[in-house]
Amino acid sequence: MASALPPQTPPTIFSPARRLAVRRRMRRLQQRADAARYLAEDMAEDVLERLGFLRHEPRRALLIGDVTGQVAAALRAQGCEVVVADPAPLPGEQELDEEAPYPFGGFDLVVSLGTLDSVNDLPGALVHGRRALAPDGLAVISFIGAGSVPALRAIMLAADGERPAPRIHPQVDVRAGAQLVQRCGFADPVADSRTLTVAFRSLRRLVADLREQGLSAVLARGGPALGKAGLARAEAAFAAAADNDGRVVERFEIVTLSGWAKPLRAPKF
């Protein structure tokens, strides 16, 4: 009999240590009243709209990355028991590594917001989320997907000149997401995307918004620091891309995956 093949180890695209450091910094920055949080707010509002459309009223829910607290507050108002978790938890939240089996389960709803775009093993993370569901439970996963930050991508290419460096994360598109959620065993899988556009008057503000929302680069092998000359080229590229009002419009593509846990069927005798 042929021996079983060992499980494949996913490539290390992202640095887990850098990812956690960026997440912790974001959680600190989000304590400020004026912190940018429009992506988290959009994802939270979308989840609540989906739950209303599906008429899904969970009794017990796990929320991962609910930075604004909107989803938790709405579900608790409906009488739902809510467990809040995060890779970089605040007091009262559970610490959770989404690339490892969850230490809890039996949820009617698992929601992940803005955390899975920088894991090395996305299929594994989706499987762990599915296994945390009770039969007929629903998972909703949202993250920044392919096509995001095209303006910044062009600006960084201009800044690096003839020696472009890896600075922007590889991103999952909606088609690949649809294949993933189906392959990971979800029933009635759905994948869709929507676009959020934001205008910026300075490169500094654009970078600050990304930092405040946990979207700084966490590549395992990222590029070197820009330096003064590179930063000057980036500023010039931003100015060249600006409209008549001095604004550069950036685009964020939000990919959302959802699926149900298949109920266990009684064996036939």
Question: What's a concise summary of this model?
Answer:
The chain is an alpha/beta fold. Helices cover 35% and strands 22% of the residues.
Structural description of this entry:
This protein is of the alpha/beta class and 269 residues long. It contains 8 helices and 7 strands. It has a 7-stranded mixed β-sheet, sandwiched between helices. Strand 4, helix 4 and strand 5 form a beta-alpha-beta unit. Helix 5 packs across helix 8. The two termini are 31 Å apart. The N terminus is likely disordered.
Morphology: globular
- Main beta-sheet annotation: 7 strands, mixed
Strand numbers in spatial order across the main sheet:
3-2-1-4-5-7-6
Helical amount: 25-40%
Number of DSSP strands? 7
What's the helix count? 8
Report the mean per-residue pLDDT as an integer: 93
Ends: how far apart? Answer: 31 Å
- Uncertain spans, ≥5 residues at pLDDT below 50? 1-6
Strand content: 15-25%
Query: Strand-and-helix sequence, N→C?
Result: HHEHEEEHEHHEHHE
| Rg, alpha carbons | 20 Å
Q: What is the SS-derived class?
A: alpha/beta
